[in-house]
Structures are given as C-alpha cells and as structure tokens.
Design a protein that fits this description.
mainly beta, six-stranded antiparallel sheet, 9 strands
Length: about 170
C-alpha cells in the first residue's frame, strides 16, 4: 500500500512540473538519397540581447575511387607482379541547409540567459569567456535545450527545431 501511495505521489508531481516546448523552426529542406543529420545550437546576440537558434543540416555521402593494388609473389625465380583494381570508399559530409532563427522570449539579462515563458522566468545559463582561448562562451545549466530532427513529411523532408524548458 505504501508503494502504491508513493507511486501515485510521484505520478501527480510529474504533472505539476510539466515542461514547456516552443516550436522554433519548421522548414522544408532539399530531398536527398543520402544520410542526413541536423544540429541546433544557441546563439546570444550581445548587441540586441536576443537569443537565436543556429540550425545546420548536413548529409553524408560516399565517393568511390578505384586504385591499383599490386602484389608480387614470394618466389624470386619467377618474379611476377599481380595487379588488380580495388575500390576505396571515402565518406564525405556537406552542408545542405543553414539558418538562424529567433527564439521567442529568450533574452540576455546582464550575463544570464533567461527564458520568459508561461510558468515564469527560467535561467538557462550564463555568458562568459572560455579559459584557454578567451572567447565568448555559453555555459548552459541543463534547464533549456534545443531538439533538432529531420523528418519525412509525405514527399518532402522537413527540419524541425524545438526549444524545450525542463
């Protein structure tokens, strides 16, 4: 009975702390026969104090080069060289889509990256400088994330980016 009450309390508490999801981007991309991957990362503009999502879709394809592979036999009395053409497969990656999209209600307040949502303000991270290269860097705290995926919509491919607050 105690286990049932504990499980019921955990289930009801998860409904209270529901996550908020905002659809940032939904756009069609060129069709391809090859393997496509998408990635999205945060970008904070210091001049305007607005937050953006930088989206990139890339495809991996194969290029085959034919090379001559020659082997000599081990018998020195009858030196012969056997040659044959063998394929050498190379995997290459190219970018097929790049876009920067504004994330609504994501602002920079001082050095803090804050999302003002329906449930109130959520601090997503801080803007600082990296230790080694002294470059501006976003240090995320795990409360906010960008989810990016490529999905087939009837006949065309579509890239979808969601901003999720935990």
């Amino acid at each position: 009975m105690k286990l049932f009450v504990l499980a019921l309390a955990l289930m009801t508490s998860s409904f209270v702390f529901a996550t908020e999801t905002v659809r940032v981007l939904e756009d069609f991309i060129p069709n391809t026969r090859n393997f496509t991957t998408s990635s999205a990362k945060f970008y904070m503009d210091k001049a305007s104090s607005l937050g953006y999502a930088q989206v990139e879709v890339s495809e991996t394809y194969e290029v085959t080069h034919w090379v001559d592979h020659c082997v000599s036999n081990a018998d020195p009395r009858f030196p012969r060289v056997f040659c044959q053409r063998v394929p050498r497969i190379e995997h290459r990656t190219r970018t097929i889509y790049e876009h920067t999209e504004l994330i609504p209600n994501l602002v920079l307040e001082g050095d803090k990256m804050v999302f003002n949502g329906q449930d109130g303000a959520v601090e997503c991270g801080t803007l600082g400088t990296s230790r080694v290269f002294k470059r501006p860097t976003l240090y995320l705290n795990g409360k906010c994330e960008l989810k990016s995926k490529v999905e087939l919509d009837r006949v065309e491919n579509k890239v979808i980016v969601d901003f999720k607050v935990k």
